[in-house]
Amino acid sequence: MADLWEFEAKPAGLLEAGARVLPWAFEEGTGAFLYWLARPGQHPNEWTVLYNEGRGPLWEHHDTGCLAFLLAVLTGTAKTDYFGHLYEVLKPTEHRFETADLTLRASGQ
Fold first, then answer.
1. How many CB atoms lie within 10 A of CB 107?
2. Coil, strand, or helix at residue 69?
3. pLDDT for position 41
4. What 8-state DSSP symbol labels residue 103?
5. Tens of pLDDT, residues 46-84
6. Upper half-sphere CA count for residue 57 (Cβ side, 13 Å)
7. Is 0.85 topped by the overall pTM?
8. Considering the chain, what is the average pLDDT of its residues?
9. CA 15, CA 20: separation in Å to the nearest integer?
10. Which residues contact 37 (CB under 8 A, 6 or more apart)?
11. Cβ within 8 Å of residue 6, ≥6 positions away
12. Which one has a higher pLDDT value, 29 or 67?
């Protein structure tokens, strides 16, 4: 990503010496990425979320970990300019998460 900073400004969280981003999710079709913002001296449980729109210079910081962020996106409570469409399109009323073991057992595999 070092080449990227030659063309666009770093997000504020990356201005701290030693701060780095680690990608953990990609939004197909948009080129957007979700990153952990890892700061020096922080335990991974303290890393927060950075969203980059992928095809532009806009970054959005979420002062929470990825699990809390994903839960907020899925329940429509995330304060984001980017994921609101998911809640509007899907209009989920209930979310269910199952282990891979339970899912595979139910399908007979």
1. 7
2. helix
3. 93
4. H
5. 999 998 887 778 889 999 998 998 888 877 788 877 765
6. 9
7. no
8. 79
9. 9
10. 13, 14, 19, 21, 47, 48, 49, 50, 61
11. none
12. 67
